[in-house]
Amino acid sequence: MQMNTPSRSTIRLTRRGRLALAVIGALVAGTVVAVPLLLITDDDGESRPTTLVVPEGWRASQVYAAVDQVLALPAGTTRKSLGKADLKLPDEAGGNPEGYLFPATYPLDEKATPEKLLSRMVATANRKFNGAPVAAGAQRNAMNVYQAVTVASIVQAETAAKADMGKVARVVFNRLERGMPLQMDSTVNYALGRSAARTTEADTRIDSPYNSYQRMGLPPTPIDNPGEDAVRAAVNPTPGDWLYFVTVEPGDTRFTADYAEHQRNVAEFNARQKKTTARPQR
User: Which of 32, 97, 204, 274 is least buried, going by the fewest C-beta atoms within 10 A?
Assistant: First the structure.
């Protein structure tokens, strides 16, 4: 018998693919870390990077691996340097810089160290987040800045389309206001240390504070490092009553407040996925 109220195990808010960056680097948490580099050749004929580009949506683990690579350090060095970096993080972060390694292009000089790079990223985030627009926007939504950054990180993980970011943020707020679990696949994937994987029913039952199928409210920290568009969407969500969304195909994300309509959209997504999977490889 079909229930009138959707169960946690059947709702899927998102089904979204990702565009992969050019592959330069290592695997981190099951995801290829691509490190965009600008190289120069010094007087000795050695090439070295002059900048590090941190893309929007990278997780802290990806940033650490990229810093290790551009500075030619053993894997794990940057992560181990956190205790020495003296990062100016909000108290709520508990020393975890996730969400505050701001996406930008950072220059590299001969004196660059993991501590200096991480400190510069956090300082950039603080300049962006602690200004009046973000603080006032967070307050309007009954949140502090750290919570707003957490919402922005979910928005960043759920959609790459700037036009949809405000709507995704509104879904987050609408579900929080109604006492509904967020049920975002992106938070489950973060808990599992992976990206862009199809979430299974077993995945939604994992014991983790980041499992937004089982836990109410926001995850305890951001789940990536959001860019300015995602932050702007988190503090100025688009007006609407939406509770569900699904990307049926690239460029076609459908938002609705009606669960039955959402089920139809998900069924269309699943049919398209099945058709794509069944298509012979060339």
Answer: 274
